[in-house]
Amino acid sequence: MRIKARTLEALYALLLLLPFLFSLGVFFLYAFLRAVYFSFTDYNLFSPPRWVGLANYWALFQEPSFLLALKHTLLYSLVVTSLQTFFALILAIALNRPLRGITFFRTVYYLPSVISTAAASLLLLWLFQRTGLVNQALSLLFSHLPHLAGFALLFLGLQGALVLWERRRGRRTPFLDPGLAAVSLLGAFLGTSAFQAWGLLQAREVRVDIPWLPTRASFLGLPYPLWAIVLMNTYTTIPTFMVLFLAGLKGIPRTLYEAAALDGATPWIMFSRITVPLLRPVLFLVITLGLIGTLQLFDQVLFVGGSGGAPLESTITLAYYVYGNVFPSGATPRVGLASAAALVLAGLTLVIVLLQRRFGVGERGWS
Amino acid sequence: MLRVWLILLALAGLASAQVQVRISGWGGTDIAIVNGLLKEVVQPKLDREGIRVVYQPIEGDYTQWLFNALSAGTAPDLFYVDIFWSESLFASGRVEPLDGYFSKQELAEFLPNLIQAFTYKGKVYGIPKDFNTLALQFNKDLFDEAGVRYPNQQDTWETFEAKLQQVQSKLKDVAGLCVVADFARFGAFAFATGWKPFDAKGHTVLDENFRRAFEWYTGLPRRGAARFAQDLGEGWTGGCFGGEKAATAIEGAWIAGFLRDKAPNMRYSTTFLPLDPVTKRRGNFIYTVSWSMNAASRNKPAAAKVLKALTSPEAQQWVLERGLAIPSRRALANNPYFQRPGKEPELNRVVFQGSGPQGGNVYPFKFLAYGGDWMRPINDALLAVMTGQKGVDQALRDAQAALDRLTGRR
């Protein structure tokens, strides 16, 4: 019997797909179906699961810590996805210029994404301790406010005078002319140093003592520890997305910009009418990946909550809530409740990504 | 040829007659201890009985691993159970009660507090392998430098605090004590007042006694006697002590190994925790770990023999003499090791005695089956007050409300 070439090809394809299909079936499909089943039971790892209907889902929405986790997750996802997309795009555009040694800068800017979350979290703990670098930098900044104010005033005064003088001489000089600004900066620096030497400007005694991590204080609805995680996560994820944007930017034909330049388009017009629309598929990818990644925030929460001593109420997210209920410290596992929470998280992720696709940036165009 | 076959058959027969008992505990330093114990004490004893012990230490999250293994039916025959999560595990029915394997007399040879800690609904579910309590360690050099008298076992909270204040004011860059927002340390002071974690109905009431201890403990940094551990970049009082950032620490015997590495030349001494000035008693925790048996084990009689060997007087003597852990047998109280001169035998002696009458009001470090959920509201309250985010009234009100929700008081 002879097998047709097409059938043979299909068989080979299937053979090569088999390992992946197997792991998908066992570790995703089977696990997912089990989780769906457990979410309707009171399973605790030990006694046989007992059907409780929708009781777990009902209990979830009655529980303050779940609602808090939901709020944190949504806000965090919104903030981080916006920040990382925006900064990754800006960085990619900056690094897409034909500059000398640009490869070096691209490598340097990519480095943060190589850091493991554990190492990044440790850095975060050091930075945001009460006696850490952030508080020390803030103390330094606030205690030297008079110097900064003096410096700014001197700069503005000098620059204003220089620009006026140039204009008097009939030159159309913009206010922030780089050459004049360099002179003004130097003058302002020397002036401030002189005032400091004469005792006219003095540093004040300011000690910033903000407990960034062991606190429940919040800003714009997100607790401080989560803001710290926002900063750290944005910092470590920007590079990856920057690389995606860079690849996208490479695909935009240069001729379009040249044509636009001939028509007298400003850089902003080129950016908003050429760059952004042609980057849509990449933007869609970046936003979708960003949303999925941020909705599943877990490891930093574990580190900051554990070693950082941040209270649970300030850091809890949905993924952490699920983990904390499957393996509660010293208590009986609540697998049923955790499964329900995991399904809510999965559903939420799906809904948000679909909404983004429908009302936000789509693959093919602005929806 | 026939002879070779016969020898091989005999060897195969011997191998099959040997019963294998799998045991597990956490990794880290315990691996060296258990391996040494098995090799030098336990296995030689069991060889005669044809029992082979297979030891599988677990690195990473041991609790998670054990709960999974018990649920999946792959757990070993014997395993460690930490007192903190013991009740939720015993309630699952996956742990074998040991009353059938140990006579009353045999059980009475262990410290009664420890046996009580592993008793659930009238049955004993674990034989304590070792234990720890809290003690007060102080750096003699720092006290000498400040010209302050050493803490001693007559100290009350007030006299102890006065000493800490003097040290802190004399040595500007050293804290008297570094305090942590953790019930695992603060609780000992709450117990000293006579406060109990649960009333007869299983509810937690943060009464006036609790408040008294809470106000004293959280007020230490404000009154210049202590600093908040995280402000010193540390997570536990031992870390501050080892780095000479604090003159005293409140830890158990586990601090000895840490200090051996971190500050081998430190001249430190150990005494009991200070007394509540009102009740004239102290409080303490018992932190303990048991060897427990898998209810689904196929070799229960052999496992029981291994369990007995692991907690035998010889095994405990071996562990004690190496300064590795505090044994759980009563008879070892008068062991010459405790009378040896030196900072570590002294530390171990005070920790050992902390579980008895000298410890005062002593409770095992477990909170029914609530575990960490129960401690969280209290820890949050400690943190909020110590970092100045809430007043005592507000913090205690919030903690009480959270505990009421948890224990179903209202």
From TrEMBL, chain B:
Gene3D superfamilies: Periplasmic binding protein-like II. CDD domains: PBP2_UgpB (cd14748). It comes from the Bacteria. It holds the Pfam family SBP_bac_8. It comes from Thermus tengchongensis. One of its GO terms (cellular component) is ATP-binding cassette (ABC) transporter complex, substrate-binding subunit-containing. Residues 1-17 form the signal peptide. One of its GO terms (molecular function) is maltose binding. Belongs to the bacterial solute-binding protein 1 family. The keyword Membrane does not apply. GO terms for biological process: maltodextrin transmembrane transport; maltose transport. This is ABC transporter substrate-binding protein. Keywords: Signal, Transport.
